[in-house]
């Protein structure tokens, strides 16, 4: 697999030359998850540096000179990250494991990529594109509201949706129980007396947001497929399968989120 060197490596090395690197950033680079997840690992008392238990988030370290352990095992930083595009079917959980034995993302990717984790979720009944990576820095940026990564969905809604309603959702939006939200784009692709097929683009990452928007105006969503995240498209990827993003795709995603 080709190496996917990113601009965050330069940032990482620059920090390393200037009074060390934040410990949570080192853990993220080593593939232990998002920055927030790595912060939890530290505060839970699972990290040792040169034999000393570290629980303070402000700690800076030199990973080239210091011995860093997580759960008693030494970490290894590898800049050769992998990022996956996965087409999630319905009835699959956007998690890596489930105590009830339901199908998860791990059942699709298997054990080949042990350290990858999902960047965002789709609800149980929704389908389409999920991005996965072992690059904690990239994951943090993709999921952070600050970078406003656009997401595209194809929704099948009950009823005959009018162009005026679509335009209102873009211009004015709707008020939900957790505040106002607007669509960036809304276009009708096809319709009959019973259903309307609509493409929507929005930046919000709120839970079940597309279903909630259309449900609030009397057009329940019967099928929902996410087809694009930032510059990455679902394309012809079959349901229940995945592919490795090319270095060019990874760079375009990094550029989208300011890396």
TrEMBL record:
Entry keyword set: Isomerase, RNA-binding
SUPFAM superfamilies, alphabetized: Alpha-L RNA-binding motif (SSF55174), Pseudouridine synthase (SSF55120)
Record-annotated RNA-binding S4 domain positions: 21-81
SMART domains attached to this UniProt entry: S4
EC number: 5.4.99.-
Matching CDD domains: PseudoU_synth_RsuA_like, S4
Domain of life assignment: Bacteria
Any one Pfam family match given in the protein's UniProt record, by short name: PseudoU_synth_2
InterPro entries: PsdUridine_s_RsuA/RluB/E/F_cat, PsdUridine_synth_cat_dom_sf, PsdUridine_synth_RsuA/RluA, PsdUridine_synth_RsuA/RluB/E/F, PsdUridine_synth_RsuA/RluB_CS, RsuA_PseudoU_synthase, S4_RNA-bd, S4_RNA-bd_sf
The protein's enzyme class: isomerase
Family, as annotated: Belongs to the pseudouridine synthase RsuA family.
PANTHER family linked to this entry: PSEUDOURIDINE SYNTHASE FAMILY PROTEIN-RELATED (PTHR47683), RNA-BINDING S4 DOMAIN-CONTAINING PROTEIN (PTHR47683:SF2)
Full protein name: Pseudouridine synthase
Species of the source: Bifidobacterium saimiriisciurei
Organismal lineage: Bacteria, Bacillati, Actinomycetota, Actinomycetes, Bifidobacteriales
């Amino acid at each position: 697999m080709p190496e996917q060197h990113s601009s965050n490596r330069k940032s990482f090395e620059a920090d390393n030359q200037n009074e060390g690197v934040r410990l949570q950033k080192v853990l993220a680079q080593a593939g232990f998850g998002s920055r927030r997840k790595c912060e939890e690992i530290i505060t839970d008392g699972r990290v040792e540096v040169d034999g000393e238990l570290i629980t303070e988030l402000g700690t800076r370290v030199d990973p080239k000179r210091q011995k860093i352990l997580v759960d008693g095992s030494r970490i290894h930083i590898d800049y050769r990250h992998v990022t996956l595009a996965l087409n999630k079917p319905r009835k699959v959980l956007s998690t890596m494991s489930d105590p009830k034995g339901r199908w998860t993302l791990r059942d699709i990717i298997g054990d080949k990529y042990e350290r990858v984790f999902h960047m965002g979720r789709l609800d149980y009944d929704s389908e389409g594109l999920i991005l996965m990576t072992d690059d904690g820095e990239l994951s943090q940026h993709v999921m952070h509201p600050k970078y406003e990564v656009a997401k595209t969905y194809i929704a099948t809604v009950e009823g005959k949706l009018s162009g005026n309603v679509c335009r209102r959702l873009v211009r004015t939006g709707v008020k939900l129980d957790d505040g106002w939200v607007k669509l960036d784009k809304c276009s009708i692709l096809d319709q009959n007396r019973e259903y309307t097929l609509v493409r929507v683009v929005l930046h919000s990452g709120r839970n079940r947001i597309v279903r909630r928007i259309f449900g609030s105006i009397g057009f329940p969503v019967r099928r929902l497929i996410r087809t694009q995240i930032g510059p990455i498209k679902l394309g012809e990827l079959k349901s229940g399968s995945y592919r490795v993003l090319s270095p060019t795709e990874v760079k375009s995603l990094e550029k989208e989120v300011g890396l």
